[in-house]
Design brief:
This protein has 371 residues and is of the alpha/beta class. It is 67% helix and 8% strand. Strand 4, helix 5 (118-122) and strand 5 (127-132) form a beta-alpha-beta unit. InterPro entries: DUF373.
Length: 371
């Protein structure tokens, strides 16, 4: 058996005519269509109902199988409630059909919005076809409206489309305001272009997710009292100071020699001038991390290796870079014995710290984390 099913998602038939739904049977559907035409001649659901009657008549003339036509409606304002209401009305229609045959549906709609109920219908009966009825003068107009409505309802898509459009629309009024205050229009255009470019770059690279995640971590760290927030800020400041000191030592070395510095010498001067500051930054950040691990109950003795490793690496780099420095005023290059001593001390410090904390951890193991 074929069921020609006319779909009215927002219940125009029930609201405007007062008819009880679902409407089953060709005569009842025709009467409801006439009532709707008298109430609102411009309603697009008129086309759906008359198309349903036309399809019903064509199928009956073919005479291959039994045919019935019905109108099912949803509710206004909520697609979820409308889908549920249509599902209930379809169940009512199927229960009223006195047939032992399998019922298959031909769906008649007036646009993409009504077609959102197709999965609801398919869960109850097979679908042989879908006919979309749209007034010729407004072909695809309702579907385009529904698509735009759905796109603008999505927060992510809305931000992607409307924010750049809003910035572009602000260009002219900003330029006019800038002219009133004797500000060059090129400056305003440059600033707006930079803002739009940064926004596009952030959206294209997906950096907004990274920024949101970082902001959440910082906020959670502030509320949780994490020591790493302070130690990371201090470590960053130490790195900046170290970079400045390294560049200053490069300038001192350049002033002490007549020829331009070789790349190896310039790198050695930068490392020698900055390594102690970088080491202080590494020790500060590692101690902050160890503190947070201890407060969170995840402390392990081997975590204390980190500051000792930083000191060991700093000693090695300080001795190695000092060995390649040129002798000059304000610069004291290290001799070969000094280099050997630095390498030995750095190696011993790293090895001894590893062995020491491994032994301590074996004798005083931390309690396992609770499951």
């Amino acid at each position: 058996m074929l069921l020609v099913l006319c779909v009215d998602l927002d219940d125009d038939v029930g609201r405007k005519t007062g008819a009880s739904t679902p409407v089953v049977g060709a005569d009842a559907v025709r009467e409801a269509a006439v009532d709707l035409a008298e109430s609102d001649p411009e309603d697009s659901d008129l086309n759906v109902m008359f198309q349903g009657i036309s399809t019903y008549n064509d199928l009956r003339e073919e005479g291959d199988e039994e045919v019935e036509v019905a109108v099912v409606t949803g509710v206004e304002g909520s697609d979820i409630k409308a889908n549920r209401a249509i599902g209930d009305e379809i169940d009512t229609v199927l229960a009223s059909l006195q047939t032992g045959e399998e019922v298959r549906a031909i769906i008649i709609t007036d646009g993409a919005q009504d077609e959102s109920v197709i999965p609801i219908i398919r869960s109850r009966m097979p679908i042989d076809g879908v006919q979309r009825v749209v007034v010729r003068q407004a072909q695809n107009l309702e579907s385009m409206y529904y698509t735009i409505k759905q796109v603008l309802a999505d927060p992510e898509t809305r931000g992607t489309i409307l924010v750049p459009l809003g910035i572009l629309l602000l260009i002219y009024p900003f330029v006019v305001i800038a002219g009133v205050f004797d500000i060059a229009g090129a400056v305003v255009l440059g600033l707006i272009s930079a803002l739009l470019g940064l926004y596009t770059l952030f959206r294209g690279l997906g950096l907004e997710d990274t920024i949101d995640t970082t902001a959440d971590r910082v906020r959670n760290g502030l509320y949780a009292g994490r020591a790493t927030l302070i130690t990371y800020v201090v470590a960053f400041a130490l790195v900046v100071v170290g970079g400045v000191q390294g560049l200053a030592l490069i300038e001192t070395a350049e002033a002490a020699v007549d020829d331009p510095l070789a790349i190896v010498t310039a790198a050695a001067a930068f490392v020698h001038g900055s390594v102690q500051w970088f080491a202080a930054a590494g020790i500060t950040s590692s101690l902050g991390q160890v503190t947070d691990e201890y407060l969170a109950g995840r402390f392990r003795w081997r975590y204390l290796n980190a500051p000792f490793y930083v000191v060991a690496i700093a000693i090695v780099l300080y001795g190695l870079s000092g060995f390649f420095l040129p002798p000059a005023e304000g610069i004291v290059p290290l001799s070969l014995p000094d280099l050997a001593a630095a390498l030995t001390v750095g190696t011993l410090l790293g090895v001894l710290s590893t062995l020491t904390f491994a032994v301590v951890e074996s004798r005083y193991p931390a309690e396992p984390d609770p499951a």
